[in-house]
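This part of the workshop introduces the protein records we will be handling. Getting from the letters to the tokens is the skill we practise here. The record below serves as our worked example for the rest of this section.

…
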Amino acid sequence: MDINTLRRLEFLRRDDHLRDAVPMVLDKNGSPKETLHIVYVMTWVGVCGGSKIILEQCNRLAALGHQVTVLCHFSRPDWYPLDGRVSFLSPPFGEVLRVPPCDVVVVTYWKEIYECVEQRVAPVVYFEQGDSHLFDPDSMDPHMMDHVRKQIQIAPFVLTVSTYAAEMLNKRFGVAAHVVPNAVNKAVFYPGGEKPRHGKTVITAIGPDYIGFKRLPNILAAIQALKDEGEEIVFQWITPGAPDPSRTEPAIVNPPQEVIGDALRRTDIFVCASIYESFCLPVLEAMTCGAAVVTTDCGGIRDYVSNGVNALVVPKDDIGALTGALRRLIKEPELRQSLAACGLEVAKNFDWDLTAKKLEEYFTDIACHSICKPKLVHTLLLFLREGHPDWELAESCLKTLERSSYTTVVVCNNGYLRNDELTERLKPFKLRCIVAGSGENAGIIVGRQLCFDMVGRLFPEADYVTELHPDMKFSSNWEDPLVAYLESNPDEPVSSCGIVSDLSACVNPDDPDELDAYLTSLRRDSIERGYTLPCVHRIGVLRAVGGFDARFLTGKQAFEDDSLLLGYHYYYGTRANWHPKVNCNSVVYHAVGGQRFGLNADLYENFNGLLRQYGAMGIGVLSRLHVAPWQVGFFTDKFSSLASASGG
């Protein structure tokens, strides 16, 4: 199977995974390490400026004493002198790029971002060096562009090479990027003293004619125009690949780096005509070798080019202006020398020793993050309506939840806000809130199951999950007794807490300290029959019984918890005589349906679903599992009616 087919199959697999992508949730709780293991994931290692930067980063980090591994389907490159201390892993095409244990994963192209994120090995950094997705998105297929957007937006950290690239990342994808500039290898690129005196002007360009944004044809047209005017020019064209056979200009194809350095030291004028670049390293390398520069304002040069001071900057796609700037530097050797001298001075600031230290500091900080692995995760349904006091209710709930032992919350957005708007509202709370859902009221069953599924994918190591509603207020560490009970009773699937449904005569519910003290005072060392919300579920059993199944629970609310109780009952078997229990060592406030009354006109839709799924015997079981009089009475009456109707 050829590489293009393998690449296509790889993209389809990744695209399928990306549909249900979940972010990497991280904690910054580690201390800086002196030595890191950094894994670079590369799409390819062929000859280009981007590959050169990545490989040199690997070399420099290895020289600083870090363990560096490159992971790529292609073999170790032979065109660039990669340090022998850098390990290279080359799994064949068709296999997932398995990230080895490490401290930081650096993904160097958008294709591999989520494949590395979903492996949950270490914090993932996306290293952006620019391409059409960043500078020319209209040229891309809409589906492909949507795929790229999802990949980039799910990266926990983004690193790039210039302020221009960072601005474009924010503009196109809404992400913030950290900037560490590229640098020049001063062992290869350095000034060479006096240039040869041969009466001709040496002009150099670097780049292939088959990559459109480089605009090599514009440069070739300007050179030809100057030659037609009678200018004596030696043109050096350096390209990583063979040019179009129709070209008459000779080209230096894929030379070693040392040959490029020698060519730039012979250069009087270096020319760049790109319409966009994230950094444009060849311009800086030319400056370092003492050449004067003519360039378009391609974006990435703005961090080190100043028009008229260390280069001449011309409009993009203006061959006349490009020709005029080159003519001016041919005619004005003093200006050429001045620009070259200033360029050489600026280039001193872009040294690999400085850049490597900046990379080391950045990756050391990233490595202080660890993948979040909470024992318990809260789930909260937020039904927010315009013109209703729903948000005030939620604020009060979340503020008291800050006193919990566990602070990770998966929030289902069942309201009118967009997910990004809700995320912003949740930021002030001392909680780690992750928004799920779509901003539409999918109902309790779908919303709660969405939360359960999200917890399983985000936090596969978690043991417990809660069910919370915004009409609740919590006491300090309220979930600890419930978790402790489940830890010491491995055959229990769920633990509920005691609840108070009316505070008006006892305490000021808006005073968190007074509320906390009151709820704490109600705790007592007692385990009683019953089932209440909030509760803590054991995830393994919850998953085994299927959670909330919307195939038979077709209504938006009501009787959803009864389906779980039946699931737990049958999971443990009728002979075990399992029944739900309330742990009175924990007490919280729950308004019990305060927000939910009247939201669903057909409250019996889910009851009928229960009946279809579990039959009359299931209804009879519920009459025995519950202890609240109205629930016992309701299910007893329903069971009796069903039995009479069947002649039992």
Notes: The CA atoms of residues 274 and 376 lie 53 Å apart. Confidence is low (pLDDT under 50) at residues 594-601. The radius of gyration is 33 Å. The first strand starts at residue 26 and ends at 28.
